[in-house]
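seq/struct pair 1
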Amino acid sequence: MWAHATHAAEEVAGFRAGVARLGLVPIVVHASYLLNMASPDEGLRARSVALLSATARWSAELGASAVVIHPGSCADFDGGGCVSRVAETLRAAFAEWPAGVALALEQSAGGPTTVGGRFEHLMDIIAALGGDARLRVWLDTAHAFSAGYDLAHPEGIDRLVADVRRTAGWDRVAGVHANDSKEPLGSRRDRHENIGEGLIGREGFRLLLRHEAFRGLPFLLETPGFDGEGPDLENMTRLKQLRDATG
């Protein structure tokens, strides 16, 4: 919905105390899926800026280090035009942006109208904003697989890392959404699966978690859950077991 979240002072204090007690870092907020920074509709882009700005403000209150967004989509996709609109819209959002909060552009599954299916899109957005240090990149394993990176094998992981380094830069990567994929390699379709139950598979996640480039990055779940209720302990346990597996 377009209405932004509000939090009472006692809620904020309780949340921050719980985060400190449990050592849950980093805290990352995913912005609304309604945002569309690439839309040719000026009114929609203005609403997107307003909602993103509000999200950033309350994210800062909660102690979050980053807000993740999907850059957007446009039916008249021509690469450059859409990317330029994203940069222009983000420039407006940065006019009033809280200190200490990064904005992470999420890689997409590569659908024909979406920005972010190629890392060159994200590189061009960052360049258009003068390399603003607040701009980061957020990876998604299901999106990467659907965009053509074969994360089930070492060569595919190496190609992903090389492409990010060549374009946006690996130092810009803030984290990873860890999701298996229901859709086949290169399908350009975004459907998440539980860890080890999709086409990336357990071996793919074992390789990812043990790859030098991914060490130290936060992995956040967006899986459907084994009970259909979203990310759960079983998915988290599987990731930890694969991370710690030998061989």
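seq/struct pair 2
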Amino acid sequence: MQKRSIAKLLTSGIIISLVSGCATTAEAKKKTRELVPQSITAEERAQGDAVHPQILQEFGGAWQAPQTEYVVGVGKNIALQSGLGNAEKDFTVTLLNSPVNNAFAIPGGYIYITRQLTALCNSEAEMAGVLGHEVGHVAARHSKKRQRKARRNSILGAIAGIAGGLLGDNGGLAGLFGGLTQQYSGALANILTLSFSRKQEEESDDLGVEYLSKAGYDPTALSDMLLSLSLATNVDALASGREVRSVPAWASTHPKPAKRVPRALREGQKYAVSNVRRTDRHMAAIDGMLYGDDPKQGIVDGLDFIHPDLRFKFSVPAGFSMQNGTQAVQINGRSGRGFFTTLPYTGNKANYIDAAFKAVAGDDQKINYGNITSARINGINSFTSKAIVSGQNGDVEVTVFAYEFSNSQAFHFVTTSPANSQPFTNMYRSVERISSSEAAKVKPLRIRIVTVKSGDTIDSLSARMDYATLKRERFMALNGMDSARQLRIGRKMKIVTY
């Protein structure tokens, strides 16, 4: 989250798009190849050129770090295997400064991967496999099929159709949040657009594995990446108080990573055997890399969001998760969802509330909200209003709860939940300022590479992780381990420390 904006709005669901089901028949593989264009067209190039600056703005910007050159080289090499371009210069690969496991590609030769996903990968081959999957979506022209279903009222609505929100229908709220593509474009790109079909995901997996083989990597590496993703997804669920097996309704259309592991493995085994993973090179590259949220943009710490520069914090209810984005903090749970964000403020509370509801409704709808009430919360002036609107699954309560930080600065929640359920009451009351000493305690986490020595155990290594909870689970997920038997002397492992 930048100082003048409020955070990054990504969803962990996007990663599901990156690496989904594999294993198809030879006939299906042939059909997949027939979808691949021979080269990047002028139309695709123009489309990518137009969207690229908006993607950088939404996804944290290009991250210039020691790892950048390494990631760009791997990305261009794997994209070259697609036949979309004839030379590495035909592709633009960007390492994004985002704390979310995410990667995607858009027409025009633009390929993206976040630093978080780069750190989750345990080898260069795994990272190449993830990028290959996303290039496969572009090669198979899946974006055109999705754009027919995507919302078209903003450029980032188009991004969603191209790059990829993987989340399924959200129970009828898409119409309600139509206008948010302009005010909260990143959130809409991830929440309100339709997913790739299962068939499209399988086609992209097949292409990704094929690209791995063509590039000389171990083609089974993608299955290992899926395992890491599955473990990381489970840890995220535990950290936010959700059941590991629970899946939000908006993600129910996508195969779970754990189910895709054996399918990806079977597909990889169809190609010539290769042991090329380049694990040591990858581990050396990511050693010292920033991990998790950038404190300059605010951090998610369990159920708390803390912004040391803007000097505030709040807490979400147990069972809810947060994603931090360039324009808002996104909040998701089974009983509701919302954003914490900001709008221009001149001291007029009624105008601010009205603007927030208009952002929710969009140009083609109007929300009739109730009276604005004021209160003092933790020494901060607050003002709020709510409305009841009809949804496909019953009445929905929409609430705008705003906070006046100064005469020229305000922030607000906009939330939706079933009428009269009120799951966010304690969250509204949790917003408070933090002191300079509290702000100074917020430090960045970094990846550190260690080598397993005689006497090391899962518990002794995971104890070095700078987390208050789930140290063992986080350590195993970060290193793609589903069994303690995988710990062996001489193996390079990742830990996360301050």
